[in-house]
Each structure stands twice: as structure tokens, then as C-alpha cells.
Amino acid sequence: xxxxxxxxxxxxxxxxxxxxxxxxxxxxxxxxxxxxxxxxxxxxxxxxxxxxxxxxxxxxxxxxxxxxxxxxxxxxxxxxxxxxxxxxxxxxxxxxxxxxxxxxxxxxxxxxxxxxxxxxxxxxxxxxxxxxxxxxxxxxxxxxxxxxxxxxxxxxxxxxxxxxxxxxxxxxxxxxxxxxxxxxxxxxxxxxxxxxxxxxxxxxxxxxxxxxxxxxxxxxxxxxxxxxxxxxxxxxxxxxxxxxxxxxxxxxxxxxxxxxxx
Length: 262
Known about the structure:
- The protein contains eight helices and ten strands.
- By secondary structure, the protein is an alpha/beta fold.
- About 35% of the residues are buried.
- It is elongated and about 60 Å long.
- About 35% of the residues lie in helices and about 15% in strands.
- Helix 3 packs across helix 5.
């Protein structure tokens, strides 16, 4: 089910390809049911497995009793708060600032961010941080408030989104929400005629403008980090926490056509 998400499937592909170069084979173990933390540890220990990659998961599994101190561990992203291990993820701040700049280059001035609290929390509020940082570089008249979806009752969200666009004269939207395009169209807002639309990650969003987060590279780098931990005998939660950030690149598409920028 996790690999139905194209980004996460690419994590797997990148990590598996890198592992194969070093003589490893990537295998999946699913916690839950008969796989209790204790049973999982027993299986991993019996098979001599000492390296673990933890993909994004919602909700977080119940790891109670799992002996992390016996394993080298790397997380993908920030959605798993525990165990607190080294991680590899996309550079959300840099990617958002890049997207803001590229959208402006294509002639859009009033650029809004559309998200929700859960998405902001799982990304460590870094999309929001990148957006607010990017806005500081433009004139105050072009700075817009963030639209946070779950600040509104479910029945009123389409109407609230349309009202936010009208009130703030939004010209383009940058979003990490899969449902953005359908919500806009349900509210009578046409893409790209009324607003341009770009996504924080293109693979799982029905939008063709935005950021390629290079998820296979994220997977490859995660394995390389894990391999270094295994070779160094570095196990458990580290005293000094490391993050490796992979920068994305901008991709042009029809959802955000060039309007004749600077």
C-alpha cells in the first residue's frame, strides 16, 4: 500500500538499486498483526539483519519494546517522530523558495500557499517556512496569507478556498495537497485560466508544474547513509542528529503557463 505512492515507490527503487551494488538485498517487513515489535526483532536478529530504513508512515506504528540500540537506522522524511534517528529527505525550504522564484519568473506576482495542519506538521512546517522566507524577498503588497484547509469545516472548504483566492487576488498557488485541483474546479476556479497551479511534489499530484523532488536519489542516499552507519557500527538513537537534504528541480507544465515574467 505504501508503494502505491509514486514518491515512496521511488524511495524503494533508489535504495534497492544502491543496496544491490554493495551486495545487499532490500526486503520489506510490516509491523502489525503477528509481527509484534518483539517478533520482528527475533526475525531480524535470526537472519543477521542489522540495518533498517523507515519510510514515511501515518499513523506511526507502535514500536513499544523494539530494541533500536541493536540496529543502524535511517528514516525517510520527518513524519515518524520516533525513533529519533538520522534522516534523509527533500529540502522543503530550498524547494519552496525555488518554486516561488520560478513562478514569479513566469509572470505571477500574487502567489499563495495552500496546505493543511497535518501536512505542515509531517514536513516540520518547512514548506511554510520556505514560503514565508520567499515572501520576505518581495514587496509587502505581494505577500499573501497561507490558506490552511482544516481551519474550515469540511462543508465550507471549497467556498472558503474560492473566497481566499478572490479576497487576496491570488494569481498562482503552490501546494502539497493532492485534492487542490479538484477543489478549485468544484468551486468554479479554472486552472490555469483563473489561477496557475504548481505542486511541491509532482509524482502523486494531478499537476504538471512544480518540483521534482528526485525521490530515487533520496532512496539512494538513504541507503548510502545506512551503509556508512553499518560499517561504522553506529546503532540506535544518535547523540548528534544528522539530516541529509536533497534539493529538487523545477519542472514546467501546462498547469502554470508562462504569463510573460521578468
